[in-house]
Amino acid sequence: MTRIDDLPIRDELRGKTPYGAPQLDVPVRLNTNENPYPLPEPLVERIAERVREAARGLNRYPDRDAVELRTQLAAYLTRTTGHRIGLAGVWAANGSNEVIQQLLQTFGGPGRTALGFEPSYSMHALISRGTGTGWISGPRTADFTIDVEAAKDEIAAHRPDVVFICSPNNPTGTAVDAQTVLALHDAAQAAKPSLVVVDEAYGEFSHRPSLLALIEGRPNLVVSRTMSKAFGAAGLRLGYLAADPAVVDAVQLVRLPYHLSSVTQATALAALEHTDTLLGYVEQLKAERDRLVTELRAIGCEVTDSDANFVQFGRFEDAHAAWQGLLDRGVLVRDNGVPGWLRVTAGTPAENDAFLDAVRELMKENGK
Ligand SMILES: *Cc1c(COP(=O)(O)O)cnc(C)c1O
């Protein structure tokens, strides 16, 4: 049998494993930060209508510039963040992972480096590797915040071309305040003009305002967003960024022609028509997230403050054994490899109750 390493693949890919959370068939799946609520039926109907319309034109390529969709995304951002943004400052792709890939193809690449503060979203490092961009793992404190002075030292020492700031951070839930982002942005510009990417995949779940306003007058600062989490549309694959229009022009240099299918554009537009209903689910999930934090602490767990739709909890002597213990009780959470900690996605109230019961049993079994 031919193995991957027998093929003439790039050296930096040899011996590596692909990204992927184990997907197991269990009653309660709280491991991938998906929205637990299926799309409401009126929206499903609207998607069917818009896709039917789009289907009539599938003999043609889609709108390469996704003008209607970007206009509606800009309107959504303007309305929800209070920061005025237009079509020219928004770009969309197949998931924010593709947005990040396009940014790294444009601003990273061979001979260049990207830096992130870990533990954080592992795809930042993986997409860097996939685009030939060197990866630098920057530090977080013991409570998973970013220490500004330590971070500035790291930036000055490595002079990265791209800096990732994930806020709220996956897998810890930690939000980053605007002052910290500004300090890191300024340090990155002083070291060498570099692109600062603020990944706000969980922005809608945060107690804090969006960092979008910071892009004003800062052409090297980008905010990336997604419809995978707050919009409950992980299956749609729609991510987007907001930035200076020059950044949108720059990613045109690497994006594949017609990368965003007519069906995707039609579906995303239908979802945006139902924003208010979907943001209602976000409010329910925020309340459930806060309940998880409170109840886990009452049970005796340590919990990292969360601004996202998930909660990092611990601390376990053996996090993987605890993960297995919960799985044995029918609850799948995520072991992100942060020693001592696990991550649970806020689900429906019933799913969260099942999860909390399982944790209680586990703690009792471990004599806590
Ligand atoms: C889930 C997630 C994304 C979303 O990726 P999509 O490709 O839009 O589904 C991006 N960044 C972070 C930090 C995430 O957790």
TrEMBL record:
The modification N6-(pyridoxal phosphate)lysine is found at K229. Pathway: Amino-acid biosynthesis; L-histidine biosynthesis; L-histidine from 5-phospho-alpha-D-ribose 1-diphosphate: step 7/9. Its cofactor is pyridoxal 5'-phosphate. Residues 28-358 form the Aminotransferase class I/classII large domain. One of its GO terms (molecular function) is histidinol-phosphate transaminase activity. It catalyses: L-histidinol phosphate + 2-oxoglutarate = 3-(imidazol-4-yl)-2-oxopropyl phosphate + L-glutamate. Homodimer. NCBIfam families: hisC, PRK03317.1. Belongs to the class-II pyridoxal-phosphate-dependent aminotransferase family. Histidinol-phosphate aminotransferase subfamily. This is Histidinol-phosphate aminotransferase. The gene is hisC.
